């Protein structure tokens, strides 16, 4: 009989942070309007919180033993990231796969290697705990002493190209396709691509595809760059099925586990140059 694992649901009400406005008619007479508007960052956060809640309803079979949902226990620092860096439309969306155990799972920020988030993005704060914690993959937030190589390589590249984070986020944003992480009973990371075909992963894809399409529309994204083949594949499917006009490209994943991945920074820079996008990040 298979053992089942479920994510913890967040029962707290969502913070829509909405505001009412007055709209002028053609005759310049101001009238109260019932339309409630939200800014981009708050709309994105609401979409992400709803996605985390939806994914929290899914029961995963073995080998999945642990499910971490940083949008629940690390929501405050994630919200800092979104509100600070995603309040405007973005030309380029870099799309990651899902949280890594020493990155977003610790900080709430995509590819969130501790020193990069704290020192370059200037984000830090208290982080909670997942409902069920793997003994060798404990969440200690910004006290974590492990470094996520993928995050250090990715954010390190843009620190080198841009100098300051504001320059990077002027036209670009980094976002994860799926906001939850899976591990087996020994703490081995399980990627979405490794979960066997079935109802569970179909539900994940359905929910995440919808939010990705909505995110591309919300941010008015022109180019989606999948970080790795899986993210590129999901982005292509979403763009095609939703009839979006965004172009989809791919950067090699910065993980040290990926084959032939030495000199990743040089390879990624070359790719950005081939895409005609390097100028977006350099003076």
Question: Structurally, how many domains make up the residues?
Answer: 1
Q: How much strand content do the residues show?
A: 15-25%
Question: Average pLDDT value?
Answer: 89
Identify the overall geometry.
Answer: globular
Low-confidence stretches: 1-37
Helix fraction by DSSP (H/I, runs of at least 4): 25-40%
- What structural class do you assign from the helix and strand content? alpha/beta
How would a crystallographer describe the biggest sheet? Answer: 4 strands, parallel
Total strands: the figure is: 11
Run of helices and strands = EEEHEEHHEHHHHEEEHEHEH
Specify the CATH class.
Alpha Beta
Q: What's the helix count?
A: 10
Strand order, largest beta sheet = 7-6-10-11
Looking at the overall shape, the CATH architecture is 3-Layer(aba) Sandwich
- Measured on Cα atoms, how large is the radius of gyration? 19 Å
Could you give me the name of the CATH homologous superfamily?
A: Uracil-DNA glycosylase-like domain
Kindly report how far apart the N and C termini lie.
Answer: 59 Å
Q: What name is given to the CATH topology?
A: Uracil-DNA Glycosylase, subunit E
Q: How do you describe this structure in short?
A:
The chain is an alpha/beta fold and 283 residues long. Helices cover 37% and strands 16% of the residues. The chain has a single domain, classed as 3-Layer(aba) Sandwich (Uracil-DNA Glycosylase, subunit E).
Tell me what the structure shows:
The protein has 283 residues and is of the alpha/beta class. It has one domain: Uracil-DNA Glycosylase, subunit E. Helices cover 37% and strands 16% of the residues. It contains ten helices and eleven strands. It has helices at residues 40-55, 70-73, 75-85, 104-107, 114-120, 149-162, 165-169, 199-219, 229-241, 264-274; strands at 5-6, 19-24, 30-37, 59-60, 66-68, 92-96, 172-176, 181-183, 189-190, 223-227, 247-251. The strands form four sheets. A four-stranded parallel sheet has the order 7-6-10-11, sandwiched between helices. The chain starts with a strand and ends in a 9-residue tail after the last helix. The relative contact order is 0.15. The model is unreliable at 1-37 (pLDDT under 50).
């Amino acid at each position: 009989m298979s053992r089942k694992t479920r994510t913890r649901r967040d029962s707290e009400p969502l913070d829509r942070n909405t505001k009412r406005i007055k709209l002028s008619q053609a005759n310049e007479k101001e009238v109260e309007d019932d339309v409630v508007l939200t800014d981009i960052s708050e709309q994105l956060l609401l979409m992400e919180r709803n996605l985390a809640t939806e994914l929290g309803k899914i029961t995963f079979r073995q080998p999945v033993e642990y499910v971490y949902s940083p949008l629940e226990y690390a929501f405050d620092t994630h919200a800092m990231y979104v509100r600070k860096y995603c309040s405007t439309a973005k030309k380029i969306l870099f799309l990651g796969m899902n949280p890594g155990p020493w990155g977003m799972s610790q900080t709430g920020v995509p590819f969130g290697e501790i020193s990069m988030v704290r020192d370059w993005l200037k984000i830090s704060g208290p982080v909670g705990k997942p409902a069920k914690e793997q003994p060798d993959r404990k969440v200690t937030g910004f006290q974590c002493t492990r470094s996520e190589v993928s995050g250090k390589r990715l954010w390190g590249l843009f620190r080198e190209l841009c100098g300051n984070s504001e320059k990077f986020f002027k036209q670009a944003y980094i976002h994860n396709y799926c906001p939850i992480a899976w591990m087996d009973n020994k703490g081995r990371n399980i990627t979405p691509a490794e979960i066997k075909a079935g109802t569970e992963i179909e539900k994940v894809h359905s929910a995440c595809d919808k939010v990705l399409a909505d995110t591309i529309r919300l941010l008015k994204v022109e180019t989606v760059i999948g970080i790795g083949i899986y993210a590129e594949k999901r982005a292509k499917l979403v763009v095609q099925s939703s009839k979006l006009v965004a172009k989809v490209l791919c950067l090699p994943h910065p993980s040290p586990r990926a084959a032939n991945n030495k000199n990743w920074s040089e390879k990624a820079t070359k790719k950005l140059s081939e895409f005609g996008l390097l100028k977006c990040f350099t003076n």
